[in-house]
Design a protein that fits this description.
The chain has 20 helices and no strands. By secondary structure, it is mainly alpha-helical.
C-alpha cells in the first residue's frame, strides 16, 4: 500500500494551522526575549558600568545561550521524533517554552538578588532555546510530509511565516506596553506582562495541535523501520548516511540566520544608538513584519515554479548588498527611509527563508528526516544568529561605524551563496522516491 501525501485540502489547511499555531507561540516568546534584551535586560539584570552598550552586550550574551541550546534540542527532539512521531514532541516543546518564558517574567532584578538574576535568566534562556530547537523540525515536517510534491515549497513556507507572526505579536505587545506606560514603569514591571501572557497563548496553541496527526508517510516509515534492524535513525545515522545534506543545510542557513537577526534585533540597538526612540522603532518593525508574513508564502510558491536553487541564489546575493544600502538609510533618521531599509531586508530574507522547509525535507529520508532537518537548521545557530547581535553591538562600540557591520553581513551572505550554488535542485521530488532510494542503499549496505 502506498502512503501518498494528502490531497484533502481542508485537512491540509488544518495541518498548516496546527503547525503555525505553535510556531507563532514559540517564536513570540523567543523574540520577546530578543527585544527585551535590547530594551530592558541590560539595565535590569546586569551591573551598571556607565556605558549603556555594555549592558546590552551582556544581555545579548545571554541571548546567545538560547541559540547554543537549540542544536542540543534539535538532536534530542529529532532522535525521539524520528522514532515516536512529530506531534507528541511538538506538544511537549510548546509547554516547555511556555513555562520557561512565564518564569522569566517573574525574575527579580540584579539590584534585588545580585548575580543570581543573570544566572537564572541564562538557565531559563537555555531551556527556552532547547525547546525551540526541537520545535522547528517537527513543525515544518508536520506540513511538508502531508502536502503534495508539486506544492511543497508553498505549503512548507507557512510555518516559516509563523516566525514573523510571532515576532509581530511580540512587537505589538511590547509596543502597547511601552506606549501606555512611562519609561520607568515599563522597565520596573510593565515588560513582565508580555512574558506572563505566554501562559494564555500556550494553552491555545496546545489545543490546536491536538486536532491533527502524523503524516501517513511517517507512519509507513516507522512501521518499516521497526521491521528492519539495519534501518537506524537519529543524529549519528544522519551524519553517517547523509553528511552532504546536513552541511549544505548549514551553509544555506548561515547568511539567512545572520541577516535576519541583524534586521530584527540588532537594528533596534543601532537605531536606538542613533537616537531613534523605542516606540517609533517598534512601530516600524511592526509594519515590516506584516510585509514579511505576506512575502514568505509568495516566495514559497515561486520556489515551486522556478525551483529552490535560483530563488535561494537571488536571496543570498541580495543579502550581500543589503547592508550597504540599509545603514545609510538608517542614518537619515527618517521614518520612511528606516522602514524601507527594514522592509527591503526582510523581503530579501524571504527568498532564503521560505524555501528552506521544502529544501531540507527533500534532503533526507523519512526515517531520519526530523534529525536531519533539525541538525542542519539548528546547529548553524551556534556560529550564526546567536552571535550576530552581539558582534554587531561590539563592532558598533569599537568603531562607531556601520561599515565593519556591513562587511560582516556581506561575508555571511557569501557563505550561503556558495552553498546555494552547490546544492542539488529538488523541485517536485517525491518523498516516497527518496525513501525507496534509501531502502535500496540500506539493502546494499547489509549485503556487503
Amino acid at each position: 500500500m502506498k502512503h501518498e501525501a494528502t490531497t484533502d485540502l481542508p485537512y491540509l489547511r488544518k495541518v498548516v494551522g496546527a503547525s503555525m499555531a505553535g510556531t507563532v507561540v514559540e517564536w513570540y516568546e523567543f523574540f520577546l526575549y530578543g527585544t527585551a534584551a535590547t530594551l530592558v535586560f541590560g539595565e535590569l539584570f546586569f551591573p551598571d558600568t556607565g556605558n549603556d552598550l555594555d549592558g546590552i552586550i551582556a544581555a545579548f550574551a545571554t541571548y546567545a545561550v538560547g541559540f547554543l541550546a537549540r542544536p542540543l534540542g534539535g538532536a534530542v527532539f529529532g532522535h525521539i521524533g524520528d522514532r515516536i512521531g512529530r506531534k507528541a514532541l511538538l506538544q511537549f516543546s510548546l509547554v516547555l517554552i511556555g513555562v520557561s518564558t512565564f518564569l522569566m517574567g517573574c525574575l527579580p532584578s540584579f539590584d534585588a538578588i545580585g548575580y543570581w538574576a543573570p544566572l537564572m535568566l541564562v538557565l531559563l534562556r537555555f531551556v527556552q532555546g532547547f525547546a525551540l530547537g526541537g520545535e522547528w523540525g517537527g513543525a515544518v515536517l508536520l506540513v511538508t510530509e502531508h502536502c503534495p510534491d508539486d506544492s511543497r515549497g508553498f505549503w512548507g513556507s507557512f510555518p516559516q511565516a509563523g516566525v514573523p507572526l510571532g515576532n509581530l505579536l511580540a512587537t505589538v505587545v511590547l509596543l502597547i506596553l511601552a506606549a501606555t506606560q512611562s519609561p520607568d514603569a515599563f522597565v520596573a514591571w510593565g515588560w513582565r506582562i508580555g512574558f506572563w501572557l505566554s501562559a494564555v497563548i500556550v494553552v491555545i496553541g496546545y489545543y490546536i495541535r491536538t486536532q491533527v496527526s502524523d503524516a501517513p508517510i511517517f507512519e509507513a516509515a516507522k512501521a518499516k523501520a521497526e521491521q528492519a534492524a539495519s534501518a537506524g535513525y537519529g543524529l549519528i545515522e544522519v551524519l553517517k548516511r547523509y553528511p552532504r545534506g546536513v552541511f549544505t543545510a548549514m551553509g544555506l542557513r548561515f547568511g539567512e540566520n545572520i541577516v535576519y537577526y541583524m534586521i530584527v534585533t540588532f537594528s533596534i540597538t543601532y537605531l536606538h544608538h542613533r537616537a531613534v526612540d523605542t516606540t517609533r522603532i517598534l512601530a516600524l518593525l511592526f509594519a515590516a513584519h506584516i510585509l514579511h508574513v505576506i512575502v514568505i508564502p509568495l516566495v514559497g510558491m515561486l520556489a515551486d515554479r522556478l525551483g529552490r536553487k535560483p530563488v535561494y541564489i537571488v536571496g543570498a546575493a541580495l543579502t550581500m548588498a543589503w547592508p550597504f544600502f540599509a545603514f545609510p538609510m538608517f542614518d537619515t533618521n527618517g521614518t520612511a527611509m528606516i522602514l524601507g531599509a527594514i522592509m527591503l531586508g526582510l523581503a530579501i530574507h524571504a527568498f532564503m527563508y521560505a524555501p528552506q522547509p521544502a529544501i531540507m525535507t527533500e534532503m533526507f529520508p523519512t526515517r531520519m528526516r526530523y534529525s536531519g532537518v533539525s541538525l542542519g537548521y539548528q546547529a548553524t545557530a551556534i556560529i550564526a544568529g546567536s552571535w550576530a547581535p552581539l558582534i554587531g553591538a561590539a563592532l558598533l562600540r569599537a568603531y562607531d561605524s556601520w561599515v565593519p557591520i556591513a562587511f560582516y553581513i556581506l561575508f555571511a551572505g557569501a557563505v550561503s551563496l556558495v552553498a546555494a550554488l552547490f546544492m542539488r535542485e529538488s523541485k517536485g521530488t517525491s518523498l516516497l522516491a527518496i525513501d525507496e532510494a534509501d531502502g535500496r542503499q540500506l539493502a546494499e549496505a547489509s549485503t556487503t
